[in-house]
Amino acid sequence: MNNLPIDGAPLAASPLTRAVLEIDEYVAGLGWDQPARLFALVDTDRLRAEEPALAERLGLDGEGDDAPVPASLTPVEQDELPPGVPLDEFLGTIAWPDAVAGCAMTVERLMLPPSAEASVPESLQEEGAEEKLAQWVAEHPDRQEVRMTVAVLRDGARESALRLREKDSPTEVLTGPDLVPGLTDALAATFAD
C-alpha cells in the first residue's frame, strides 16, 4: 500500500476531485505503459481517529506543512491486480470494508476520436468480436493512448480524469463525473449490497 502525495490538486476542488487528480499525478510520475491500479479512498480524519498508527505510517499525523486539507480523502494503493483476469471479473470479486469511503482505479487504453468511431466495421461491433475490435483500434492511424483515473464514493459521487499520452501534462488533464461511465458503474458496483 502506498500513500499518495497531496500536492498538485486545486484546493477549491471537491475532496473527490482532489483525490482523482492526486492519483493521476502519482501514476503519471510512474510513466506510461503501467498496469491497472486500484485504490481505496478513506476519509483522512476518520483514518487519523480510528487508525492513528497507520495514519502516522502514511504521514498523515496532521503535523507540519504537509498536513492534508480538512475533509480530504486519502488514496491508498491496493495490491496489484491479478494478471490474466478480465477487469470486469476482478471488480466483481471486490467487497470493501465500512472504513473505505470510496475507491478509484487507473487504466490505460487505446481510444479513437469520435470521427474515427464512425468507421468501425459493423462486423466488429457484434457481440464476441471484442478481441478483433481491439486489434483494429490498435492498428488505426488515429488511435490515441489515454490514461483514465476514475473514482466513486459510497454516496454515489463520481469523478474522472483523462490524460492523453500525446498531451502528457497536468494542465491538459480533463476532469468530469461522466467521462468513463462504464468503468465508473463497475467501480460503483463494488459498493452494492
List keywords for this structure.
single chain; 193 residues; alpha+beta; six-stranded antiparallel beta sheet; 7 helices; 28% helix; globular; disordered N terminus; PPA1309-like; PPA1309 family protein
Describe the structure.
The protein is of the alpha+beta class and about 190 residues long. It is about 30% helix and about 25% strand. Strands 2-1-3-4-5-6 form a 6-stranded antiparallel β-sheet. β4 and β5 (about 160-165) form a beta hairpin. This is PPA1309 family protein. InterPro entries: PPA1309-like.
Could you give a quick summary of the protein structure above?
This protein is α+β, with helices and mostly antiparallel strands and 193 residues long.
Helix content: 25-40%
**Topology as H/E string?**
HEHHEHEHHEEEH
Overall SS class = alpha+beta
**SS elements, strand count:** 6
Write the layout of secondary structure elements.
Blueprint: H1 15-28, E1 37-43, H2 44-50, H3 52-57, E2 73-77, H4 87-91, E3 100-111, H5 114-117, H6 130-139, E4 144-153, E5 158-164, E6 174-176, H7 181-188
Antiparallel strand pairs: 1-2, 1-3, 3-4, 4-5, 5-6
